[in-house]
Structure formats: C-alpha cells, structure tokens
Amino acid sequence: MGVREIFKDNLKYWRNKANLTQEQLSEKIGYGGGYISEIESRNIFPKPETIDAIAKALNIIPAQLFEEQGCPRNTIRFDKKEFVKEVSSEIYDRINESILKYLDEKL
Contact at 8 Å (CB) between 55 and 15? Predict the structure, then answer.
C-alpha cells in the first residue's frame, strides 16, 4: 500500500473516531466543505501545513496519519468469531477475579 492510500485510510479512521463529518473537518481546518471528501475519495494530497492543520483538528500528531498500522483497516475485515472469543475470555477472567476478590473481602 502506498503512502497516499495509508494517509487516506488513516484520515478516514481518525476523522470518524473524532466524530467529524468530512464537511466539519474541512471547515475546522479552514477549507470549503468538500475538501476532505476530495482527499478521501480522489488522489488529492494536502500540503504539509494542511496535514499539520488536519492532525491538530483531529487531536493527533501528523505522523499518525502516515503510520502503516495506524488505521485499523484490518478491523474492518477482522475475524469476528475470534474477536468474540477473545473478548469473552477476557470478560470471563475479569468476572472471576472480581468474584474471588469479593469473596476474599467478605469471607
């Protein structure tokens, strides 16, 4: 995957995590409402100072927009059954610890 694709994926991820629409982020960095849409959907690449403004608006450091593993692209295609198994196991362990702690305190 190239730098532009990594950047676009990370931008979408961090924008969504910040609960911002494309238009809201565009306005927040001082551009017209469609600017972020153009970056995310086409091959438009922002200038360094715009990347800084985007990162600041998203409350991240600019490097996070370029980290190859920065966007959990693979979370879109993760193994749901494996994920449920891992979460269930962790919840089970936490519940057991809580019960044991409670019993130790009460008995």
Answer: no
How far are the Cα atoms of 10, 37, 57, 94, 97 from residue 64, in angstroms, in the given order? 7, 19, 13, 32, 36
Closest by alpha carbon to 1, among 71, 58, 55, 63?
71
DSSP 8-state code for residue 64: G
Phi-psi region of 46 (alpha: psi -120 to 50; beta: other; left: phi over 0): beta
Q: What is the pLDDT of residues 31-52, one digit of tens each?
A: 988 899 999 988 789 999 999 9
CA-only gyration radius of the chain, Å = 20
CATH of the domain at 14: 1.10.260.40
